[in-house]
Amino acid sequence: MKRALSIVMLVVMFAVLVTACAPKPEPAAAPAPEATPAAAEQPAAEKKLKIAFAYQDLETEFWVAGHKAIVETLKAKGIEVIEFNANEDANKQLEQVNDAIAQKVDGIIIIPQDGESAVAIGEACNSAGIPFGVFNRPPSNKDAKALVAVADNVTISAKAMEHMALEARKVFEKTGKKVKPLVMVGDLGDPNAVGRYQGFKNVYEKNKDIFTEYIEVPTKWDSNTALANLKSAMAANKDVGLLFCGSDFLYPVIKSVLEPLGKWQKIGDPNHIIMGAVDGDMTAGKLMDEGYVDATAVQDLYYEAELILTGMLEAIEKGEKTPEKWMDDPGFALTQANMGEMKMRMWGNKLRQEKGEL
Amino acid sequence: MGENILALRNISKAFYGIKALSDVSIRVEKGEVLGIIGENGAGKSTLMNIVGGVLQPDSGDMLLYDQPYKPKNTMDANASKIAFIHQELNLCNNLTVAENIFLIDFPKINKIPYINKREMNRLAHEAIKAVGLQCPPDTLIEKLSQGERQLVEIAKAFSMDAQVIIFDEPTTSLTARETERLFKIIGDLKQKGRSIIYISHILSDIQKLTDRIVVLRDGNVTAEGTTSSFNIDSMIFNMIGRDMKHIYPERKNVVSDEKKVELVNITKKGIVSNINLHAHEGEVVGIFGLMGSGRTELMHIFFGLDSFESGEIKIKGKLKSKNTAVQSIKQGVAFVTENRREEGLMLEMTVLENLSFVAMPNLASRFLRFIDKSRIADKAAAISQRLRIKSGAIEKSAAKSLSGGNQQKVVIGKWLMTSPEIFIVDEPTRGIDVGAKFEVYSVINNLACDGAAVLVVSSEIEELMGICDRIYVMSRGEITGCVGQDEFDRETILRYAFGQCAFNKNASHESEVQQ
Amino acid sequence: MNNNNKANMSAFALKLLKNIPLLLFILVFVVFGLITPVFFEWDNIENILTSSSYIGIVAIGMTLVLLTGGIDLSVGSLMFLSASSAGLLIRNFGFPIWLAIVSAIVIGLLVGAFHAFCINKLKLVPFIVTLSTLVALKGLTLMLTKSVAVEWPSAITGMASRRLLGFIPLPVFIFIVIIILVQLMLKSTPLGRHIYAVGYNSEVAAKAGIDHIKIIAVVYILCSVLAAIGGIISVTQLGIVNAGYGEGEEFKAIAAAVLGGTSLSGGVGSVFPGVVIGTLLIQVVQAGLVYLQVDIYMQPIITAGIILLAILLDSLRTMLEKRLERRNITKSCE
Amino acid sequence: MFLKGSPTERNKSDVKDLFVKVLLSEYFIVFFCLLIFVSLMPVTPHIASRANINNIMSNLWPLFIIAIGQTVVLIVAGIDLSQTSIIAITSVVGAAIMTSKADPTLFEKSPLWGWFLTESGGPLAGEPAAIYAAIFVMILIGVGIGCFNGFFIHKFKMPPFMVTLVSQMLFSALAIYLTKSENIIGLPKNFKAIGSGSIMKIIPYSMIFAIVVAVLAAILLNKTVLGKWLYLVGSNPKASAVIGVPTGKVIIFAYAFSGFCAAMGSVLLSARLIAGRPTLGQTMLMDVVGAAVIGGTSLFGGKGKVSWTLFGALFFVILANALNMMKLPFYVVDMAKGIVIIIAVAFDVLRIEIKRRTNVM
User: Fold this and answer.
1) Total domains in the fold of chain D
2) CA separation (Å) from D198 to D64, D146, D261?
3) Residue D273: what pLDDT?
4) Which residues in B lie closer than 8 A to residue C268 (C-beta atoms)?
5) Could you give the 3-state DSSP secondary structure of residue B63?
6) Can you give the pTM of this predicted structure?
7) Cβ–Cβ below 8 Å for B92 and C328
């Protein structure tokens, strides 16, 4: 009996599945009963727009700020936002976007796990005819039509590192001793981490005359690992003179390692380590104000958000199904040298201003 | 009549509507050894679990020193100074002797929960000395032999000053020497005025040890009286409710000249040396030896579960090319292991499944080895009928639900599915009751009648003398004697078992005989 | 004679193998030290100890659970929850630091009690229960923090660098205190011995009169409390809790416990030297690879290799032990 | 039955009967999925739309295939934590074989560069047989890693949890090392079809893959000697050895099969994302083990079925989909997921308890 019952249930389930999977009959030929009122409704009432926003994760302040910028702007415009968190799993993100497509959203914006998955997800959106936007991480090729607003990690990291190299040259000229650089590398599975590391290396190669061999510190984007490894590295190499880190979120860790060693010093102090990182968050803003940090590679988060949102809304308005536009965020490096003019362009400082810290 | 310590009055207990005990009344006198016998399922264990606080009766009551005694759990029973030594020892092998003795009531320092190790070891030392166990109290249990572990359990009873001690089948895994020691200790306990309840299938032990006997059958007391008023036959009669003419089946097998098995000079360093043995078609060959004489190890080597260094194994005149279990099975050897629960059965699986496992590869299709379920089922049904396995529908009832005798039959049955010609049977009747024993003997006998060679390993001399045509005796990894049916004699066999190494004092000191 | 020698040799090998984690630890330490002598400096040793302290504390809790044959996969998420909630209580509700820490520990206690409830009363498998809380607690913490990093006051980060007796950093001190307490508890209290008894066989323990339900409850609660403490200890060093905090710590803790000789099937294992050495071994390898500036892509491969070697040797020990245990049956007199 | 009553009560008891029956069914989890599904239909009607059901299905297959492998390993009382890394490394190697372009700036540091991977792609770039060769090699590697696990577990009696945890670390690191973190793109168009294409727009290829693997596994487990041996070794290795089961080979086979399934899963996942990714599948582990266990496979060996695993996987996929559909804030999704899992398992335990009691009566 039990067996019979479950078999019946199974048959029913598969029947439902098969009928559901079968090609949909033309709506004109056989309009589904529930479709009629919906179709009738559409022209009458102004339908509320629905936009899906799928992001890879919210692990650092950068992503939280980016998430906030997009979600709040959309909501302010009276648009319904459906959020998905992929927990750093590209495949899960694809599944989530498919879920969104199934919900018939009007537009999809993603922060992809990496450029390659952006392409695959984009193709899914294209074939569903839903406008597709990519935020912050560029798709690896143009196979999928997309609105893209991105900064290049390698370039902006190099920009910040260039300033740091300049500072290092000053030290070299003053003391005649080559500077020992240290680089904190993020999770090797994360393309951003690798890009930033590459930016550092590019500048390092160009300035080999003033640098000694650099020290690599793996962090896996994990504070505890970063802490343990940076401690070890600092103990093994007491003469580190420059520190480049893959992300601002590790500054508290860096501080708690350097401070007891007496190396958490402001610029100008003989024990100061030339320091810089990537992101441009509030901590970095504060530390730059206080004079601990030399340079920060900044992605212009708000600008990117604005680019992608305007692009997306325009496309929806025009009824474009597969809009395509590449919008570059040139990014910049906020350095102690350009603080005057550039300071407020950094999103971390804008946040601080909102909070009344500035 | 002595003073009653414990009296059980009209105890009844049912499990899910099935009566396990009905209106059982027994009493235990001070300083006596009360034997409780009965077939498996007669209710002995249930009754003792009620006394030991593991189970609660549905009706009836118990009096301890004429006071109502209602234990809710083991600890209550212990507090009332009743100790229960289970058949499967209740020790934690990863703890020390002393810790096991004081597991529930550690000596503490000033009542803070900090174990006073010195005090604990001192008390433990006293307790184990009293039972004649010679090891430091901080020895881990896993380093002790079965017999020594049992002594630890008794020491535990000692340390709680138990007045009533229940032994449930205490000798199943003991060597003869350990058994002897146990009996001496039980005698001492009796002298000190402790009461003992002793449960066993070995009726000769019961006869030797107890003062009074209670016989249970189907949850009722069928007989009660002083030990001297019983003989083995009357005990069996009361247990199974009918006369049993013979303990051993009539021998009808014909031993032919053809050697089915031959082991030549088998040697494995430290385990066995120079083993020469053979068995003919239709012959039941016994292998007797002291516990630890290497008999089981030899059988493992023979069957291919262990390797050997030199010598050769011939099966039906053919040299065994590869010494693996698979090869043995291919050449028609079956191995009924001594530990049927751990090495013989898949307890959770059905009888049918258990019966089918050995034959499965043979009955499978050549291509991709698909199983032929219907052929297996037919064959299993036939075997089950032939062995008269008592169970529910074989495709439904789990092996664990069967009685010990029937479980043993399933283990034998699974081998019969491939119709092997050589049987190795290790301790076939351990822990099963009289009626079932007879049936197992009959199965062995029938195998021989059908032309198989059967090697029976046992530590019960009488059993081997009852069912074998020839008995090899092993001692310290060697075969020290071979006795034909006409020379069967307890003394002779034992002499061989103590070994020709008798000139070595160490050897005789360590020699242990199992009866 | 030859035989005797052989037996002696295997006994010696066994003795060596018995201390595999310790030997391997010393070996790795010395090898790294010989290559880069700075490795032997006190600074480095102190670093290794400090870095080990938080994961060591979590691993000790994990060991307790493993000793009973269970598993707790939720420790990472719980570290995240305890550290974040304590930080939030200080920052948003003005709790004094001690009260916030106590609250975090109470949270750990509640989570442990929930595990115990599910395992004891609902009879759920620990693997699934703690897998669910692994997911659920992470969600809960993200809800509380809105995924924003939680900063702790600098007074606490200062604590981490405080030295006791002039040279023991506070986290290490707490680590040592916990080692001593748990070691004493396991070896010398009825509770500790009962944990081993339940781990060996809960049925046997129950028959002997041990309240195994209570033991299981205590063990899961202790594990969660220690995870909460571990979370706080780690944050005293970091000063900030990010959204990714605590991920994967459960596997680190299990690896440390198993490297230290704890069996996953229960009943076998120790805090000292066991887990402590297991934890230190992993940290020493990690630190050594940074000292040697091994290619960062190779570092995880080498770490995995060393762990594989450690458990391989441990298995060889067990196998050898079994072989030696087999009694010599034949006469040795000839 | 134990339910008696007057005629007026019969209706009630019929309902109760039905409830008990549903609860007692070994396919309880299916009913639970259905319950979730149906109860959400009024709230989010999209959940029953064709697109969404298509979507649920396409999410189901890779998880199902991988979980089948896990089930087989669980049956022999093991666990395979290395499946995720097998997915990653096979994805990378498979893609490297068939890719038709590789950017030298990205890959010149890769140990594969020059001899295996060049500017014009992998060794079989552009060949029509490249896809088959790549899939073949992926399966080979998966089986190889499975044998590696099984070998250590059998030969040295090492705990499966630790062996597979170490090989998870090892092969994940190796996958990242092979491409130096980069994803390999430029895969043939036909390969993409495996992930998202379908026959006549009805039956997706991934479903065919999954059904083939599932049928293979089901036949293996139910009909063949080897299948029975898996259960035997899982429930009593000692007794299995006595009756001539080659326990070592059976254990190694189980892990190899798990590796095979992981590799097949990797084919589907790589095809969906059209890239070879060294981080593919990294977060799937808990879903895979969870799917197998929630379906009813025991962590202690000897028990497990392919159909159970299908329902376990279905449960996880429907749960994730339903939570996505409900437009919940992301943190609630995690919490709800954890709680629903506990509820499902608690029901399952209740079911077994009731079954035990009624059986005894």
Assistant:
1) 1
2) 18, 30, 21
3) 85
4) 94
5) strand
6) 0.87
7) no
Residue-level pLDDT at C133: 93
CATH of the domain at C235: 1.10.3470
Sign of CA dihedral D157, D159, D164, D166: negative
Domain range for D190: 62-312
Q: Is residue C5 part of a domain?
A: no
pLDDT, mean over chain C: 87
Give residue C195's domain range: 54-322
> Residue B360: which of D228, D236, D242 has the nearest Cβ?
D228
Residue at D50 is within a domain: no
C318 interfacial to chain D (CB closer than 8 Å): yes
Chain A: residue whose CA lies nearest to D326: A82
The answer to whether residue C1 is domain-embedded is no
Helix and strand totals (H; E) in chain B: 17, 22
Question: Does D190 map to a domain?
Answer: yes
The verdict on residue C168 lying in a domain is: yes
All domains of chain A in start order, with CATH: 48-150+301-329 (3.40.50.2300), 153-300+333-354 (3.40.50.2300)
Phi, psi of B399, rounded to the nearest 5 degrees: -60, -30
Chains that touch D (3 or more CB pairs under 8 A): A, B, C
Q: Is residue C33 part of a domain?
A: no
Task: Please enumerate residues of B whose Cβ is less than 8 A from a Cβ of C.
Answer: 54, 73-75, 78, 86, 90-95, 99, 103-104, 106, 108, 113-115, 117, 269-273, 292-294, 297, 476-478, 501, 504, 506-507
Whether the predicted pLDDT of B339 surpasses 50: yes
HEC string of B178-207? Answer: HHHHHHHHHHHHHHCCCEEEEECCCHHHHH
B345–D236 C-beta distance less than 8 A? yes
Three-state helix/strand/coil letters over A153-217 = HHHHHHHHHHHHHHHHHHHHHHHCCCEEEEEEECCCCCHHHHHHHHHHHHHHHHCCCCECCCEEE
Give residue-wise pLDDT tens across range D139-149: 999 999 999 99
- Residue of D21, D182, D330 lying closest to A85 (CB–CB): D330
Question: D331 and C139: CB-CB below 8 Å?
Answer: yes
Q: How confident is the model at residue D254 (pLDDT cuts 50, 70, 90)?
A: very high
Residue scoring higher pLDDT (A332 or C159): A332
Query: Please, are residues D300 and D16 in contact by the beta-carbon 8 Å criterion?
Result: no
pLDDT digits (tens, 9 = 90+) for C162-215: 777 777 888 999 999 999 999 999 999 999 999 999 999 888 888 888 888 999
Do chains B and A touch, with touching meaning 3 or more CB–CB pairs less than 8 Å apart?
A: no
Q: What ipTM does this complex have?
A: 0.85
Domains and CATH numbers, chain B: 4-240 (3.40.50.300), 259-512 (3.40.50.300)
CB-CB under 8 Å, D243 with B325: yes
Does the beta-carbon distance from C139 to D299 stay under 8 Å? no
Q: Per-residue pLDDT for B214 more than 90?
A: yes
